[in-house]
Write a structure and sequence with these properties.
Blueprint lengths: L3 E4 L9 H16 L3 E6 L9 H13 L6 E5 L4 H14 L2 E4 L3 H13 L28 E4 L6 E6 L3 E6 L7 E3 L7 H11 L4 E5 L6 H11 L5 E5 L2 E2 L15 H6 L4 H9 L13 H7 L10 E2 L2 H14 L2 H14 L10 H8 L6 H9 L9 H7 L4 H14 L4 H15 L3 H13 L7 H7 L2 H12 L1
Parallel strand pairs: 1-2, 2-3, 9-10, 11-12
Antiparallel strand pairs: 4-5, 5-8, 6-7
Helix pairs in contact: 1-9, 5-6, 8-10, 11-12, 11-13, 14-17, 15-16, 15-19, 16-18
The protein binds glutamic acid.
Amino acid sequence: MTIRTRFAPSPTGFLHIGGARTALFSWAYARKHGGTFILRIEDTDVERSTPEAVQAILDGMAWLNLDYDEGPFYQMQRMERYKAVIQHMLAQGQAYYCYTSPAELEAMREVQRARSEKPRYDGRWRPEPGKVLPEPPAGGAPVVRFKNPTSGSVIWKDLVKGYIEFDNGELDDLIIARADGTPTYNFCVVVDDWDMGITHVIRGDDHVNNTPRQINILKALGATVPQYAHLSMILGDDGTKLSKRHGAVSVMQYDEDGYLPEAVINYLARLGWSHGDDEIFSVEQFCAWFDLDHITPSAAQFNTEKLNWVNQHYLKQADNARLVALVRPRLEARGVTVSALPALEAIVALYKERVATLNELADAAEVFYIDLHPDRELLHSQLSAEAVPALHELMGRFRDVTWEAQAIGAAIKEMIGKHGLKMPKLAMPLRVMLTGQTQTPSVDAVVALFPRELVLARMAQYLE
Ligand code: GLU
């Protein structure tokens, strides 16, 4: 059997982090088994679906490198197919027209509520052998309902949650076409999963309640029922449902915030799935290891600190030229002109060990290109009276020293020796004069990043 999975987002918002994890797991399952991964856009909610949201989903998938083998399919382009299946089901007696008006439904529910019963459709238009149906009202536009089995139960072995059972007696006769003829959500999903030959439905567990209805319709159609794996939700850092309140929930927001896509993938892979104690692994390893048995049925909790840690790992490993290509536009977006010197590549090479995000890398690089005005108070607190003559003399040495870290370091050491100072006495004010910061990589390496003239100019500003 060829594994066929799908990711079926509704384009009512951007691709959020939960959706991205669902996409990742569906994708990885197909990749692991040499199967097919399908992208299907469930855009039948015309009020809430937007082209921008479709684009955001495509952008998010592309950014994460989740490639699909088939699609994107759009449900709005498949209307004729759904309608044809509805006609077929009507002809087969698997579905029926129901003329109950909204007012009648409301009245029905009132009575049920008064009797403390669960509100449900009472089946008044459901054909049964020997039953006499009411006369259709003149001009009434009927909905189409699925003739759900009335006895027995629907049971499936969920690949994440184990056996789940629903009594058919609990399930209404679902409306599969509205009065205007348009098919409803659950019905479109069923026809698509059937037509697309989906073998494994991997999706959020907010769809568990839809599953028995979908299974019943699939069975009525004579379709093979796929296997289901319902993923538990992702909670926010604070243990509550992950929501917009938690800030960066759109996948593209992570791009903006300076995360590498491979870090987000690695992080998401561990969100509810595990492979022993492995925390850092490539996407190839993930595809080789991924299975549904090691998905935890309990909710996973988002942890920004851990994401930062993972991102830091990938930043350290990242190729310098690639980091330049990622950091440069961030600097330019801040209005910073990246000149040839100091070389951005040398800056990212030195700083990538110390930052958690690309934005922090851009922060570190920015000070090399702007007209820097270090905080006066900070500089005063670091610039001691005994350091001033040593720094003066150091400026002189900087004029003719070979311009590379080792020789620069030797010149600094020579000066602290000569003036009887401890290293920080010289290194700290130098750091602040050059970068505005006290925390930098080793000072000789930082000095060497700048062109000589720029170092002299920045020092001169405060010493002369
Ligand atoms: N369109 C649904 C959603 O975005 C997913 C449906 C499914 O995976 O079956 O939640």
